[in-house]
Structure formats: C-alpha cells, structure tokens
Design goal:
This protein is of the alpha/beta class. It contains 13 helices and 12 strands. Strand 4, helix 4 and strand 5 form a beta-alpha-beta unit. The radius of gyration is 22 Å and the shape is elongated.
C-alpha cells in the first residue's frame, strides 16, 4: 500500500464521489480536485466502494452508502478523509475510521429548514387527511361537499410531541407554534430556559409520558444503538387513540410492524413517513393505508439545500488538504499526515 501523503498536499487530492451532485458543485470540484464523479448516479456496489477506497485521498459518500468496518479496514493508506454528503453519520463506522486515523466530516445545518418544512407537511396533512382527500379526487369518487365529509382533526390546542430537540426539532417547534399547537419535547437534556420560552416548549423528562400526551408525535433524533426502535409496540400503545406519528428522521427509529399494526387496528389515525427501515422498499401495507403519507425520502430535497451541502463538502476537503482541521469534523481526534 502507498503511504498517506503528508498535509498540506503537494498536489490536488484525488476525490471519488459516490453519487451525482448538483452541477455547480461538480463543476467546482473539477476545478479544485482530481475528481472522479458518478455522472450516471447509479449507487456504487460494495465492491466498487472498496475499489474506490483503495484509490483516493478523499471519499465523498452519501447517507445511503454503508461504510462499515470491513470497508474501512481494507481502504488504501492514502485515504485520509471521508467527507460525507449529508448530516447523518450512522452509515459510517466512526470507531473504525478513528482506528485508521481517517477523518470523517458531514454537512450539518444546511437541511434544517427543508426537513422541518416537510415535517410540518405531515403534521398538518395527516390530521386533515390530505392524502385521503387527494385520493378521493384522483379516483373520481368525490361526490361533492358534505357537512360530515372527510372530517379530520384541528391542530390548534393539540399537543405536538417532539422527540429530539436539536436544530430540526427546534425549527419544527418554531413553525408549529404558529398553528396553535402546544409544544412538548423529549431529548437527552432540556433546552436552556430562554430557548424554551422563545419556542413555547416544555420539557418532558420521560419519553413514555410524552407519548401518552401527544396528539401528534414527530421524530427528530439521530439513529443510534439507543434510539433504534425507540418507538416500539409498547410505546405506541401508550399513545392516545386517534393520534398520529410523523417521521422525517430515520426509518429504524420506529418498529415498522408495530406501526402498521396500530394503523390497521385504528389505534393510530395516520402517519407521515419520509424514511423507511429498508429503503427504497416501502411496505405495501403503508402504501395502501388511506391516511399514511408515504414520501420518497425528500426531507432535504431542495435545490438550495443540496447545493449548500455540496459546497460544505468542498470546504471540508479544502481545509483538510491544506493541513487544517475541517470545519465539520465528526471525530474529535485531529489526524495529521
């Protein structure tokens, strides 16, 4: 294996990008780096990922590329940076990267508003039965307005339970307050009192208690060993009959079988889902349910957000190649040379 070159690099770093990015981002990468782009946008196979990691200074994966310990162990010595496109890092084995002295960066913050906006679409759309209504129109079965037709639930005065009060959770709270929702939240620790006052939010120390009082539950926490299947059958049973769940975070936060059972029994009135445990597969029972909004993982899908994320990737690579700590380094250890 070749030895990892010292930094700052004497020549432009060899960068391999696993998916097609915004044209302006790719154009800038061509100017700055010795870059290999995936213009076909077909996801790399595991063997192709392994080969890429043998032949670059920087790998630019996305959240759908699983960079596990075996891939990292087999990487070439020159690989010094994994500059991930996106905020999540659960697709990368961070401990394995640290053991190989490979820096990992992400692109936090750029998708906050975009994801919060989409979560609000579910928070509004599920109680108002938007999917069912559009389906009625599209099927040609709508017979006209009626006093008792397609009755939903009003938002004002209802309790919105937010699981995870980071950037996105706070952005959702800010938006939801304008709709008259009462904001309750659970997370690792409460927000500062001033932030709670600004958002009109109150901390609930026990997630079970939060679920029991929420009319709408929305998930905004990272996927970790502790949060995988955080919303399971027992906790769903604690929720009020007729309540709903919104998930724009990660599919494996919810026990999908338990969710489907609660939807089919009528215990839950509906759900708004942008993520799934086995993407791109979406369970047919979710698709068939009249009040489940099934979206194709588009929480961050705005041109502005994707462009900003790409430019963050570029900034991280440039700082690393110049011998400096990248601004969005995930691992705390500073790796040099």
């Amino acid at each position: 294996m070749t030895q990892r070159p010292p930094r700052p690099l004497a020549s432009p770093p060899r960068v391999i990008v696993t998916r097609h990015l915004m044209p302006t981002v790719e154009a800038r990468m061509r100017e700055l780096f010795d870059v290999v782009l995936n213009e076909s946008d077909v996801p790399l196979t595991r063997d192709q990922l392994a080969q890429a990691m043998q032949d670059c200074d920087v790998l630019v994966p996305t959240v759908t590329d699983r960079i596990d310990a075996d891939l990292i162990a087999g990487a070439g010595e020159r690989l010094g940076l994994i500059a991930s496109f996106g905020a999540g890092t659960e697709h990368i084995d961070l401990a394995a990267a640290a053991a190989r002295r490979i820096i990992v960066t992400n692109t936090p913050g750029v998708f906050t508003d975009d994801t919060a906006d989409l979560a609000m679409a579910g928070i509004i759309g599920v109680p108002r039965r938007i999917r069912e209504g559009t389906g009625l129109i599209r099927s040609g079965k709508w017979t006209g307005w009626a006093p008792s037709g397609l009755l939903g639930r009003k938002l004002a005065g209802k309790v919105l339970g937010i699981v995870g009060m980071g950037r996105i959770g706070q952005a959702v709270a800010h938006r939801a307050r304008a709709f008259g929702l009462e904001i309750a939240y659970w997370g690792r620790k409460p927000l500062p009192e001033a932030a709670e006052r600004m958002l009109g939010a109150r901390y609930v120390a026990d997630i079970d208690a939060l679920m029991a009082e929420a009319d709408i539950l929305t998930l905004h926490c990272p996927l970790t060993d502790d949060t995988r299947y955080l919303v399971d059958a027992r906790r769903i049973a604690l929720m009020k009959p007729g309540s709903s769940i919104i998930n724009t975070a990660r599919g494996e936060l919810i026990d999908q079988e338990a969710l489907i059972a609660a939807l089919e029994s009528g215990h839950l009135a509906g759900a708004g889902l942008d993520v799934y445990p086995d993407e791109p597969h979406v369970d047919a029972r979710l698709i068939a349910h009249p009040n489940v909004m099934t979206l194709p993982h588009i929480g961050s899908a705005t041109a502005e957000g994707r462009e900003d994320s790409g430019h963050k990737v570029i900034a991280n690579i440039r700082m690393w190649a110049d011998g400096h700590r990248p601004p969005d380094q995930v691992l705390t250890a500073l790796v040099r040379g």
